[in-house]
Amino acid sequence: MEKPILEVDNLRIRYGGASAEAVRGVSFTLGRERLGIVGESGSGKSTVGRALLRLLPGATITADKLRFGELDLLTLSEKEMLKVRGRRMSMILQDPKFSLNPIRRVGDQVAETYLRHFRCSKAEARDKALAMLEAVKIRDPERVYDQYPHEISGGMGQRVMIAMMLLADPDLVIADEPTSALDVTVRLQVLNILDGLVRDRGIGLIMISHDLNLVRNFCDRVLIMYAGRVVETLAARDLDRAEHPYTRGLLAAQPRIGGGRAPLAVLDRQLEWLEEKA
Q1: Residue 187 above 90 pLDDT?
Q2: What is the reported pTM?
Q3: ABC transporter domain: which residues (predicted)?
Q4: Topology given in CATH for the domain delimited by 1-81+220-278
């Protein structure tokens, strides 16, 4: 059996001075697959993703195991983590207009990833960046390379972010709501790009999302998070057969085209959900 890319056991995260943990006892493994993490805002989805990259300054992160390949992420120094971020593990953030530097040309920001992690000339990095921009279906990459972020559309900006995060050929990509700002057509194009990368390059992908329909149709497995805990884990194709009342409540709260006009269901939260394990 192939060894997992990522192993997480009893991950706990507490922000400085907080009375309660933001993430409590989260455990999962990730192979060369598409893993969805869903839940309401504040459930801890993005916090888990950022913890893997150690991008939570001021927070206390503990775990029985937090292993990425042969690396123990809990014991790596910040200098060692700099070699992991962007090179072996990368994160696609939600909105490119907040993630791209507005005063630097798009292509230079993409090429910087290659310059930082590989010994190469600026010309070589430019060629690699242009090839990756073309790989994420950007037409006329030479023109886009020299544009500033405000000169490109939201969909193109998201593809630029994907190109930037994938240029160094990482083993693990964390995509935090990568399609939330996109229209339906562009969203499908971006998902097809990510799907191709999982299949063709054999990477592991964590998809953080509120969109249950997206996760159902795109991911292989799903973790359902509530109040910092994983309350249910199941195959994405089985999402409609979820057993936990929280998961069923999320599904029932979705409006459906052609559905009835009655008010949508409201979650009936139970105190025991706070402590039970998946």
Answers
A1: no
A2: 0.89
A3: 6-252
A4: Rossmann fold (3.40.50)
